[in-house]
Amino acid sequence: MNRRQFVTSSLAAAGVTLLANNRFTAAADQVPGSVPSSSIQHARFPDNFLWGTATAAYQVEGAWNEDGKGESIWDKFTHTVGKVKGGTTGDVACDQYHLYRQDMALAKRLNQKSYRFSISWPRIQPSGTGVPNPKGIDHYSRLVDAILENGIRPFCTIYHWDLPQTLEERGGWPNRDLAGYYADYAGILAKHLGDRITVWAPFNMPWSFTYMGYGAGAFPPSRANYGDFLKAAHTVTLAQAEALRAIKAASSKATVGSAYGMCPAYPKSDSEADRAATSRYHAMNNVFFLEAAMHGRYPKAFVAEPPYELMGFKPGDEKIMYAPLDWVGFHYYTRRIVSDASNASSSAGGSFSGTEIETDSEGARDPYTRFRAVMPTEGPVTESGLEVWPRGIYDLVTQISKEYDHPIIEITESGCGYLDAPYEKANGRVPDTRRIEFFRQELAELARAIADGARVRSFHAWSLLDNFEWANGHCERYGLIYVDYRDQKRTIKDSGFWYGRVSTSNRLDV
Ligand code: FCB
Fold this sequence. Notes:
By secondary structure, this protein is of the alpha/beta class. 39% of the residues lie in helices and 14% in strands. The protein is built from 19 helices and 16 strands. The two termini are 28 Å apart. The model is unreliable at 1-26 (pLDDT under 50).
């Protein structure tokens, strides 16, 4: 970083808007990975593009034990001393369980067209099976009404990680019975809410919660066993397909897609071995569940044949897991550099920071996929520790478009963690310049992918508001709206006002 860039980023870090109208200078253009300011000025989005934001039940709702809600694995995890940075929990979070009307009015102020939220399974079925809890259904029914009253499309994620604790006690996701329980739960939602919700994603980031929960132990239920991960992943594949059928049986208007986590992966070298390892990474981390749904098979994620026995795969499962999606949804945060680790001894696991940074040790991640994936730091790094690499979204969108025959794509999440807070000398505004820059550059690359033919119909910024960031607790802020957790006061950040203008004009130089 040269002196000028250092000064620019330091001032931006202090929340100072250096340039009139937040326009870029030559210095910003020189940041590794950044896109030229002309691309930002020329970027245009289609007229009916759905500008949205995303949240997850556990991260925003609070009310952890109200109205008959059962305990989830995240309640148990955060109530265990030592698991969450800062010792906070999601017990109250943003209190959106009570403040949803206010939050939807704020979304409307930002001209939002889509709101992606998730439903807490233990609010609907406190112990994971059986008759639904009417108070849980009523809550989400009122939430969906509030979303629609504000002219916003409700996009429902059925599962964003908060498994009923009772089901974990029955073996958790490695127990194949969960596929059936989950499909029942999904069917209940479609029956009660399917008259108003038409866009459903069964799972948020299925690789992450199965691997981090059962393979690496960084997330609840804190198990570190590769076989458990494989079994959990296979149950989730079956569950995804069974849910799609249950939802469509209960609601003729339903469309079903996904909310996968994906990182575009680049080989460390041009060697055949590194390129093959990169394909295995893509198969394992990006398209494992997508390929299963679209083609009823697993992609080539393993050096040898898939370890079917260890996965608990039964003859005929290929027919169960086949359930072509109506559209393909995925997140983009950052990228990976992948190398072959065929000859390394496996480390089994890896550790994680946040939901996106994996720090694989020197060895192979496991004895079956045998690659090593790292997040580079060539571009600037956010306060949450993720490398900013705008081009990644272009590469990912064009790759998925090509591999899956140009599906309709929803960008289900993208965003950046910066800690900017209200600044008294700026009349209490939150001048989060770095977030505006992040989105401007990334969205310029998304516009380029659309111009090149990708059928992207939405973009959901993570997140509408600052919220409980899993094991990092309140130490990260991803919102377009600042939340003061002492009194739940919301303050729209400069990035929120900017995003609202983008949504109205379908352009970025606003
Ligand atoms: C994604 C998660 C979301 C949030 C963001 C920062 O991986 O889906 O819940 O934690 O990261």
